[in-house]
Amino acid sequence: MLVDFLDMDPLYLCLINIESHSHVIVQAPVLGLWINVRFDERFCGLIGVMIADPFQVVLAAHKALHLSKLQKTKTKTLHSEIIFNLSPTNNITDSFKKFGLSENDTTLLLAVITTGDGVEKMRAISQHVKGRQVPISNLKTLADQQAIKKVYKIQDCELKVSSLTESVICRMATKDVL
């Protein structure tokens, strides 16, 4: 999936059901952000089951790009800022634990912001993950709604008047205000 932010670099998303991680990626995990030593590509590896909707990642990436242009990011890299922006809290470590990929996860959502050929970069990265790419539309069915509701503190009564995605987006948008 490609999302173009007009005057900003495009975001590429790829959803993969993981069989096992290859050695090239697993050798250098840094709290959910991996640097692929062989290709020197930076990307964001997210736990797929913690994402209610692709729009959630688009919002986090847009905010990361915007803050990067203003030089007001809270983390060291653009891709780690995406993970931080997904969190409902301002605790950076906690956001990496809840949304950054670990070795035991079975669903990987790759997010890459790049100026070059994003499709080729995404292919180069996904070659190092043993699994199969699935349509991004499957993300909603793979999401662990109970875990998402727990992380974002969403009550069942709230879901009677809004969707899970709307509730998550609301919390992401208001975390800097509260």
TrEMBL record:
Keywords: Nucleus, tRNA processing. Its main location: nucleus. GO terms for cellular component: cytosol; EKC/KEOPS complex; nucleus. The keyword Transmembrane helix does not apply. It comes from the Eukaryota. SUPFAM superfamilies: PF0523-like (SSF143870). It is found in: Nucleus. Pfam families: CGI-121. One of its GO terms (biological process) is tRNA threonylcarbamoyladenosine modification. Belongs to the CGI121/TPRKB family. This is EKC/KEOPS complex subunit TPRKB-like isoform X2. It comes from Actinia tenebrosa. The lineage of its organism: Eukaryota, Metazoa, Cnidaria, Anthozoa, Hexacorallia. The gene is LOC116296655.
